[in-house]
Prior knowledge:
- This protein is mainly alpha-helical.
- It has a domain of 57 residues: DNA polymerase, domain 1 (Orthogonal Bundle), CATH 1.10.150.
- It contains four helices and two strands.
- Strands 1-2 form a two-stranded parallel sheet.
Amino acid sequence: MKKLLLIVASVIAFSVNPAFAAVDINTATAAQLESVDGIGPKKAEAIVEYRKKNGSFKSVDDLENVKGLGKASIDKMRNELTVGAAKKTAAAPAKK
């Protein structure tokens, strides 16, 4: 019986994934953005369109510039969003 309980507990523990990956607002598709609680199809499309016209977001707070998104809604979904790592430029070749 203990072995059965251990198996059941293991299955439950591994099937519930508490970790999640934050959605990168600079690379996400509209469908990926919709996976964030608080972003529906219209807001997702507005984010993608804003990004196409204005370039990458520097911070999650920049979403305030997107029509339909305000500080309160951004604060609610902040933990599910990221702007990703900064792009690195190529290093200059070493001098001899």
